[in-house]
Amino acid sequence: MNLPDTTSATPLYKQLEEALKEAILSGEFPPGQQIPTENDLSTRWNVSRVTVRKALDALTREKLLTRVSGKGTFVSEEKFQRSMTGIMSFSELCRSQGRRPGAHTIKSVFEPASKEIRERFGMSKEEKAVVLERIRYADDVPVSLETVWFPPRFAFLINEDLNNNSLYDVLRQHHDLWFTHSSKVIELVYANFDVAHYLGVAERHPLISIKSEMVDNHRDISCISHQLVVGDKLRFTV
User: Fold this and answer.
1) What percent of the chain shows pLDDT beyond 70?
2) CATH class for domain 12-75?
3) Which of 25-39, 73-87, 117-131 has the lowest mean pLDDT?
4) Candidates 1.10.10.10, 3.40.1410.10, 3.40.50.620, 3.90.226.10; correct CATH number of 80-237?
5) Nearest-10 Cα torsion for 38, 42, 47, 52
6) Is the distance from CB of 36 to CB of 75 less than 8 angstroms?
7) Are 99 and 140 within 8 A, CB to CB?
8) What is the mean pLDDT of the segment spanning 155-162?
9) What residue spans in the chain does CATH classification 1.10.10.10 cover?
10) Residue partners of 142: CB distance under 8 A and separation at least 6
């Protein structure tokens, strides 16, 4: 990056902003790379840290940079694109974009379900739901935390190895079941301590919450899921 032109009418912070943007778009600073610190940029450009901060703030608003508390400022990684119409598993989404899907199972258990879930599944109060909780990865980077509920007849899932395996593939290949359509509720939430730990983000980091109700090829509501997605790693289309 060139030194600033103090004779230009363009403010110094804007010159730095444009220089950093050019470095990002040209690949000099590739996605995921940490950029120089505010002190380094201030020294290199012979400008104040206030000027540097204004340039970084502008690029952060443009989603070209991502600030991670306690770690620094990084070039935003390419977002995964997910359609909100139709049904595509996370694994299919990753593979369609040349990424390597992954999963780590946190729990696979029988648990009491909420009244709402019991009613949707037609369960009695005494019955317990099958509950799966997994961290989903793309190229080893945690992207979402998903919790999935199934009615008791899906007890076979307790014994399935779902680490780095697609749940959809297991259901289709071994149990001749797949999902035909779904309804979704989407909202912005913030990571609590546990979720932040699982996803490698700061506490109170904004997340996209997606609650889905899935209908299978037998026309039954057989799956209810809740995903917490790191919003700066996924783009949605409708």
Assistant:
1) 89
2) mainly alpha
3) 73-87
4) 3.40.1410.10
5) -20
6) no
7) no
8) 94
9) 12-75
10) 135, 136, 198, 199, 200, 230
Question: Using 50, 70 and 90 to split pLDDT, how confident is the model at 155?
Answer: very high
SS3 of 27-83: CCCCCCCECCCHHHHHHHHCCCHHHHHHHHHHHHHCCCEEEECCCEEEECCCCEEEE
Overall average pLDDT of the 21-48 stretch = 85
Tell me the C-alpha to C-alpha distance, in Å, between residue 144 and each of 13, 89, 138. Answer: 35, 13, 9
CA distance 55 to 58: 5
- Of the candidates 123, 125, 176, 188, the one whose C-alpha atom is nearest the C-alpha of residue 149 is 123
* DSSP, residue by residue, 181-236: EEEEEEEEEE--HHHHHHHT--TT-EEEEEEEEEEETTS-EEEEEEEEEEGGGEEE
Which tokens hold the place of 180?
């035909």
pLDDT at 80: 62
